[in-house]
Amino acid sequence: MKSSRRKFLKLAAVSALGLGAGRIGFLGDAPAGAMDIPTAADYNAPMEAKHWGMAIDTTRFNQELVDVCATACHTQHNVPTIPGKKGIKWFWGANFEESFPTEHGHYMPEDVEHRVYPLLCNQCEEPMCVRVCPTQATFKRADGIVMMDFHRCIGCRYCMAGCPFGARSFNFQDPRPFIKDFNPLFPTRTRGVVEKCNFCAELLALGKMPACVEASGGALIFGDLEDPESDIRKVLRERFALRRKPDAGTGPSVYYLM
C-alpha cells in the first residue's frame, strides 16, 4: 500500500509540474525550445572565475544585433515586455552621448558617434546599489557578479537611486501577464520588485555562457578579468576600451571596445 501511494504521489507531482510535456502549468506552457530541467549532474562542471567581466565590440553592433541579444537575455530570464515608461530592461541599446556622457567631445568620428551601444548592469567592483540596499536583497558574489534576491526586495528603490547607470528596473505592476515566452527554469517576479542583469549566473552554474554572449556571434567577449590568458584579457590588451562613467568610482566590469 505504501509503495503504491508513493508511486501515485510521484506521478502526480510529475503531472502537476508538466515535466513529461516540457511545461510548468502555473504560468502556462513553456516554449518548445525550452531547456530540459537540469539534474544534479548538470552542475558538476560550472564555469568559474575570480572576476567575471565582459568586453563589447562596439564596431559590430547595430540595432538588429542589440535586439537579438536583448531577446535572448529577456527570454532566458522571463523579462516582461511592457510598453512605455514602466518597461523592464536587462539588455538594451543607446547612443554614444547617453552611454558615455562624460566622454562626449565636440568633434567625433561619425561612425563612433552614431553607433548603437549595448547597455546592461556593469557588475561594478564597488557597487553603490549594494551599499544602499537596506535588506541585502542585492549583494555581490566573490566572483564579482552583483545579484538580486527577489524575495528580500521590499521595493524601496534605493538601489535604483544609487546605480549611476540606470541598469535597474522596477515592477510597477504584475509583470507575469507580459511574459511572452515563459522559461520555467528561472523565477518570475512580482509587483514591487526591482530586477536587473545577473550575467546569467544560473547558466554559468551549468557550465554555459551567458545568453547574450551566445547570441552575439562573438561581438560580446566574456571571461575572467584576473586571468591574463582569458579571451577578455587578450582582447583588452589589443584594443582601446572605455568604461561607462568612470568618475562615479564604481569600477565597472563591462568594457567597450572602440
Description:
The protein has 258 residues and is α+β, with helices and mostly antiparallel strands. It is 25% helix and 13% strand. It is built from 9 helices and 10 strands. The strands form 4 sheets. The protein has a 4-stranded mixed β-sheet. Strands 2-3 form a two-stranded antiparallel sheet. Strands 4-5 form a two-stranded antiparallel ribbon. The protein starts with a helix and ends with a strand.
Brief descriptors of the model:
258 residues; alpha+beta; 4-stranded mixed beta sheet; two-stranded antiparallel ribbon; 25% helix; globular
Strand content: 5-15%
Given as residue ranges, the uncertain stretches (5+ residues, pLDDT < 50) are 1-28
Rg from alpha-carbon coordinates: 20 Å
Q: Structural class, please? A: alpha+beta
The termini sit apart by 69 Å
Tally the beta strands: 10
Report strand order across the widest sheet: 8-1-10-9
Number of helix segments?
A: 9
**What would the average pLDDT be, to the nearest integer?**
88
Helix content: 25-40%
Biggest sheet features: 4 strands, mixed
Global geometry = globular
Order of helices and strands: HEHEHHEHEEHEEHHEHEE
SSE topology sketch:
Elements: H1 2-17, E1 52-57, H2 63-76, E2 92-94, H3 96-99, H4 110-113, E3 117-119, H5 128-132, E4 138-140, E5 146-148, H6 158-162, E6 169-170, E7 194-195, H7 201-204, H8 211-215, E8 220-224, H9 231-238, E9 241-242, E10 254-257
Parallel strand pairs: 1-10
Antiparallel strand pairs: 1-8, 2-3, 4-5, 6-7, 9-10
